[in-house]
Automatic annotation (TrEMBL):
Keywords, comma-separated and alphabetical: Disulfide bond, Glycoprotein, Membrane, Signal, Transmembrane, Transmembrane helix
GO cellular component terms, semicolon-separated: plasma membrane
Gene3D superfamilies xref list: Cupredoxins - blue copper proteins (2.60.40.420)
Signal peptide region: 1-26
Bilayer-spanning residue ranges: 163-183
Annotated protein name in UniProt: Phytocyanin domain-containing protein
Residue ranges of every copy of the Phytocyanin domain listed in the record: 28-131
Length: 184
């Protein structure tokens, strides 16, 4: 265990960690219905359709259904069951509120409240979930060929090139790792 507290070991670990790819995909927590929560919507079915149209759903995001246990439920259903407001053969059922659903696959997802007549009067939600797209690295232009200038003696002298953006990004992280290792 004392070997792990060695500054040299910590330095190596920090340097390796600084070169690992970093995830830039942020997961979003969507509060279904915003302040109204998951309830019988006063505006009918268009309430949740309007809310969903203002959101962008991606695999890994979560839906937070805010409701009181016993008053409502959340069931994921098939498209035909959604249209018929049928709670037979639900894909998942969450009777306890509030509840969080993690979006694990892309495609269209359908949610209803299974309490009698709630779905028929508008407590249902359709969302389209996009797959996670890997953050594409910015394209780095090829390094320019070195330019030369004639010196007073007539021999070419290469002009200095500016540091590449990748080098400029790695240097501060490396120095941070060294500093942490020294003061640990």
């Amino acid at each position: 265990m004392t070997a792990l507290k060695s500054p040299a070991v910590l330095l190596v670990v920090m340097m390796v960690a600084s070169f690992l790819p970093q995830s830039t995909v942020a997961k979003t927590r969507h509060v279904v219905g915003d302040a109204s929560g998951w309830s019988i919507p006063p505006g009918g079915a268009t309430t949740y359709a309007t809310w969903a149209a203002q959101q962008t759903f991606t695999v890994g995001d979560t839906l937070f259904f805010n409701f009181t246990t016993g008053l409502h439920t959340v069931a994921e259903v098939s498209q035909p069951a959604y249209g018929a407001c049928s709670s037979i053969n639900t894909l998942s059922l969450n009777p306890t509120g509030p509840t969080t659903v993690t979006l694990t696959r892309p495609g269209t997802h359908y949610y209803i409240c299974t309490v009698v007549s709630h779905c028929q009067i508008g407590q249902k939600l359709t969302i389209n979930v996009s797959p996670v797209t890997a953050a594409t690295p910015e394209s780095t232009p090829l390094s320019p060929a070195p330019t030369f200038e004639l010196s007073p003696t007539g021999s070419p002298v290469p002009l200095p090139l500016s540091a590449s953006p990748a080098f400029a990004a790695v240097v501060p992280v490396t120095f941070l790792a060294v500093a942490l290792a020294l003061f640990y």
